[in-house]
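Field reference: "sequence" (input) and "structure" (output). Example, NUDIX domain-containing protein:
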Amino acid sequence: MWKRLGGRVQWRLARFRHRTFLVYAGGVVRDERGRILLLRHRLWPAYRAWGLPGGYVNAGERLEDGVAREVREETALEVEVPGPPLGLASGFRHRVEAYYEARVVGGRLELDAAEILEARWFPPDGLPDEMSPRLRKVITGFDLKPG
C-alpha cells in the first residue's frame, strides 16, 4: 500500500510518524565510464522524476547499509559503499540527506516496477532536464574521481 500512495502523502505520513527528522541515504552508482545511474521514479512529479537510487534509512541501520539496501531494492544491483559520504544536504524540513559513492559488485539491473519506471546511465555533464535543480546541484558538487 505504501508504494501506491503519492509522494506528498508518503511525506506527510512519514513526518507524522517520525516527529524529529528523517535520514535519507542516496547512492551515486557509476559505471566503468564514469556515468551515473539515475532512476525515473514513478511517484515523483514528471518535472523532477529523475534521481539517484536511495531512500530512508531504518532506525539503527548504518547509512552505508541503507544505501546498499535501497540500491538493491530499486535496481537488484549489489553494491559496496567504500568510503565516507560524498556530501550531506537538506532540501526539506525535518530531513537530512547523505550521499555515498557505491560500486557495483554483483546483480543484474532489474527495476522495482512499483517505484521505478526507467533506469539510465548519464554522464555528470549530461544530466536530464527532468531533475530537481537542488539534486542537480548536489550531484555536480560532488568531487567524483574518474570512473
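DSSP finds three helices and eight strands in the chain.
The mean pLDDT is 86.
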